[in-house]
Amino acid sequence: MLADQSLTRSLVRLVAPIVWRSDRKMASKLAGFAATEAGSALDMLKAAELCDDKKLRRLFFRHAMDEARHAKMFRAHSRLLGKESDLQESEYMRSSATRQNLYQELGLVRFLAFVYQAEKRGEAHFDSLRRHFAGHPSLEKLFEEIGKDERFHVAYSKSLLKRLQDSGREKEVKQAKRSIAVQTAWASWRRAGKRIGNVLSWCVLAITYVVVVPVFALVQRITDRGAAHGWQRRRLPEGSVSEMRRQS
Amino acid sequence: MKILGISAFFHDAAAAIVVDGVIVAAAQEERFSRIKQDASLPVQAVRYCLDEAELSMAEIDYVVFYEKPLRKFERILVSQLRAFPRGLRQFGRAMRTWLGSRLWLKSDICKELGCSSQQLLFSEHHLSHAASAYLCSPFQDAAIVTIDGVGESATTSVFHGFAEEGCPKIDLKLELPYPHSIGLLYSSLTAYLGFRVNEGEYKVMGLSSYGQPKYLEEFASLASVGDDGSLEINPRYFSYHYHATKSFTPALEALLGPSRIPGSPLEYPSGDIDMQRYADVAASLQTFTEEYLLVLMGEAKRQTQSNSLCLAGGVALNSVANRRICEEGPFEHVFVQPAAGDAGGALGAALYASCVLHNDPRPRLSSVALGQSFAPASIEKFLDDCGVKYTKYSDDEELADEVAQRMSVGQVGGWFQGRFEWGPRALGNRSILADPRYASTRDRVNRAIKFREKFRPFAPMVLSEDTHLWFDLGRNRDRLLAPFMCSVMPATAAAKEKLSAVVHVDGTARVQVVGRSSNPRTRRLLQAFKKKTGVGVLLNTSMNLKDEPICASPAEAYGAFVRSDMDFLTLENCLIVKDQI
Predict the structure, then answer these.
(1) Quick one: B394 and B495 in the same domain?
(2) Counted domains in chain B
(3) Of A4, B139, B352, B525, which has the fewest beta carbons less than 10 angstroms from its beta carbon?
(4) What is the mean pLDDT of residues B200-221?
């Protein structure tokens, strides 16, 4: 985990000068953060809605409200930095939020492990950005303020995991942490794999298109009586179960 | 019979369950997944429908998919061969989609939904649309016109719905083949105007009111309309049949001027030449579509000799065109299925198997409240557990009075009641409501609550007995459409003067008439507002933020509430006020 955090910090240090190089880029990145935080807010709200435990519900709810507030803060700063035309272009990013339904998919323990690890990464990320923007009139304070909340999220998720561990579910918690770490890595690999797969399938299909399809296209062109136009009359097949079993 | 209908894999996936001819539940997948117009297999919507009907998948007689996938695949292949060698990118995209998943759709559906292949049936795309409109309508004999982008291969169909020995029958009269599609023409121009296809069409309709139809001559060269209501697209201007991402060619830009960059500013009224041109193009498109639809309706009348018309398919959501069809078309009665888009196909597929195949009684669609509801006790527990301050009202009158009072002083709030609506419109169950009297309210809702373009209008909901005071009912042929906000009405002079937040720049409004038998709590609110202000009308917009689906659960409603500038939120009988949380 520590290695993970220091890697995050190093990466941010390395790329921040490029990624955050202009007001326009900053506005765009902040709009992206706003969308992510808004999405997290929806996930945390769903978790609050679905879980039964009163204490957990309240914590998830508070977390959701924090994320919603962060989204608003990021959006407000993005508006300050962006040009009007850019603002319009990324309005979708600014206001949209996608829920990943994590609580339903992961279950309580793995969800908590996910929140803990994601918040830990987030804390490291925002802390690095706070350092990067040291002296900036608004962004240093923004990342500092949000960083405080992130620390609270890390702390509460950690203590909830500990409470579960202490209640005799140590093995389950350890497994959940491992599985989330593996799942995160696996998701990254799958994303990369998907990209590679896309390129490969694209190549295969492109070759098919220039080598195989021309033959069929030629045959089609010779036999084609032209695309139909104007009204067509067709009798619907007899409405029956056996006919409706057919996909064609 | 217990029939489950599903639509998926294009846009707006949905599920609907019909038990012995009664529509028990219907919902779009987006409401559960929170992905706008989610096209994936509607697993969560199916789960909800089964729960609502208290049935397991094993108890379902048939699961009906809304179209014939292999027929669609055949059309794509032929279209690709015709377009060779221009369609490389679309070929790649289509083949990846089809070879990767859609060809295995039958086994995927069975695996994901837990049904057997014996349970699974396939309807036809336009037949599903037709069934969704006709079988829900009050008509015994009707012309049914279905118009959308494209189904398997047809883009527009004319059916005749009638009863034979007490059994409903649907007979196909005519169909127009791909790529000759008014729906795709509208979508291509939507893209030309810089809006997202399948979503921005409403915006084009709103934009059209700011322009004049100056480009009708140019539109005549984009597509020709036959006297028989057929349509022929000029392929020179369109590329949707071979291009993966762009649906129009440079020739269209040469004809109408450069296309709008998505996201670039649109402010009206405007002195900017380009902005005015976009509005004029939108106006021309809207007029062209309306004129075409009127010719098409004439042909539908000739083919069926029926006095009644049922409309479905995405184009049937064009409420401005619907008004003209009602007022100028040849039919005495008109019905539009409120979820006229692809989501409605799920309902139609189920109804076709239920009512036509198995002779179950036909349902009557008197309300679109077919989605999930939440018990007031569970809402209170949620709010208590989360430490949210709220006021509980045990008397509906008191709640209505309080909310009406808040709106009358300019506050804007969420109104969450009962089951969520079926279809794209919020009709008082998941709505954001406001005072319709001030244009500043409209601007505030656009800017700080919905985060959407300034030029877009808001719809009013009105007490049925007051409708004539504010809106011109005309020949009143759209009375079946009015409860579902499927048609526009011209505003009266009084409305133009007093309801500036809901009367569009062209002097019309997309009205929802709230009748005596529908939605009692919302009606009570309208009455309370009328008592305070003398106006039995409210501004009504769906409870969602820009580009998000309409909220389904109380937590989602609360999420939208805190992320926007809404002043209050009503969750059933609990009132939450922003400055008290």
Answers:
(1) yes
(2) 3
(3) A4
(4) 95
Return the structure tokens found at A75. 């959006």
Q: Give me the mean pLDDT over the B318-333 stretch.
A: 96
d(CA B472, CA B469): 8
Domain that holds residue A166: 2-172
A84 vs B265: CB contact, 8 Å cut-off?
yes
B85 to A217: CB separation less than 8 angstroms, yes or no: yes
Most confident of A71-75, A179-183, B218-222, B514-518: B218-222
Q: What pLDDT does residue B449 have?
A: 83
Q: Give residue A97's pLDDT band: very low, low, confident or very high (50, 70, 90).
A: low
Report which of B518, B504, B503, B501 is spatially closest to residue B464, judged by C-alpha positions.
B518
pLDDT at A38: 86
Question: Do B400 and B324 share a domain, yes or no?
Answer: no
Q: What is the pLDDT of residue B269?
A: 77
In the prediction, which pLDDT does A89 show?
47
Out of A143-152, A181-190, B146-155, pick the least confident.
A181-190
Q: Could you tell me if B137 and B335 are in contact, meaning their C-beta atoms sit under 8 angstroms apart?
A: yes
Largest CA distance in chain A: 77
Q: Does A226 touch chain B (CB under 8 A)?
A: no
One domain for residues B312 and B418: no
Q: How far apart are CA B514 and CA B483, in angstroms?
A: 6
Among the partner-chain residues A220, A229, A248, the one whose CB lies closest to the CB of B180 is: A229
Judgement on whether residues B101 and B197 belong to the same structural domain of the protein: no
Same domain, B348 and B394: no
pLDDT tens sequence across A107-153? 999 999 999 999 999 999 999 999 999 998 889 999 999 999 999 99
Range of the domain at B523: 376-580
CATH of the domain at B220: 3.30.420.40
Q: What's the gap in Å between the CA of B265 and the closest CA on chain A? A: 7
Q: Cα(A36)–Cα(B313) distance, rounded to whole angstroms? A: 35
Q: What is the mean pLDDT of chain A?
A: 87
Q: How many domains does chain A have?
A: 1
Give me the pLDDT at residue B321, please: 97
In this structure, the answer to whether residues B191 and B265 fall within a common structural domain is yes
Instruction: Tell me what ipTM this predicted complex has.
Output: 0.85
| Nearest-neighbour CA in chain A from B439: distance (Å) | 22
Same domain, B389 and B326: no
- Taking CB atoms and an 8 Å limit, are B387 and A61 in contact across chains? yes
Helix (H) or strand (E) holding B559: helix B554-563
- Angle value at C-alpha A64, between A62 and A68, nearest 5 degrees: 115
Dump pLDDT digits (tens) for B524-533. Answer: 999 999 999 9
B52-59 contacts at long range (C-beta below 8 A, 24 or more positions apart): B52/B17, B52/B24, B52/B25, B52/B372, B53/B2, B53/B17, B53/B19, B53/B24, B53/B25, B55/B2, B55/B17, B55/B19, B57/B113, B57/B114, B57/B115, B59/B2
Q: Which of A101, A210, A216 is nearest residue B33 as measured by Cβ atoms?
A: A101
Quote the percentage of chain B above a pLDDT of 90: 83
**B143 class by beta-carbon count within 10 Å (0-12 exposed, 13-18 middle, 19+ buried):** buried
Phi-psi region of B218 (alpha: psi -120 to 50; beta: other; left: phi over 0): alpha
Question: Is A36:A6 a contact under the CB 8 Å cutoff?
Answer: no
Residue at B80 is within a domain: yes
Cβ(A60)–Cβ(A44) below 8 Å: yes
CA distance B454 to B551: 22
For residue B50, tell me if it sits in a domain. Answer: yes
Taking a C-beta distance cutoff of 8 angstroms, is the pair B396, B526 a contact? Answer: no
H or E element that contains B327? helix B319-328
Q: Is residue B365 part of a domain?
A: no
* Predicted local distance difference test score (pLDDT) of residue B568: 97
Chain A residues inside the 8 Å CB shell of B78: 220
